[in-house]
Amino acid sequence: MRKVLLIVMVGSRLKKALSVQEVLTRYGCLVKTRLGLHDSGKNVCSDAGLIILELLPQEARIKSFKKELDALPGVKTRLVSITA
Fold it and tell me: Going from the N-terminus, what domains does the chain have, and what CATH number goes with each?
């Protein structure tokens, strides 16, 4: 079994959310699982966010997806492939 994960770090989450969401929507059929995280508490809500995506193993589309996200200012990605 092989799992492909794309980890996305979004700086300035409140300003970048719309542009990141537009890319995520374009590649939505590639995404099996999506988990979004940010630090929050009673009196704080972090402006940075982390998105963990489990993707279908479609190498060419993954490469395009990653490239589009990396082109956004304040967004960094890391591709992880794990085989059991």
Answer: 2-83 (3.30.70.1150)
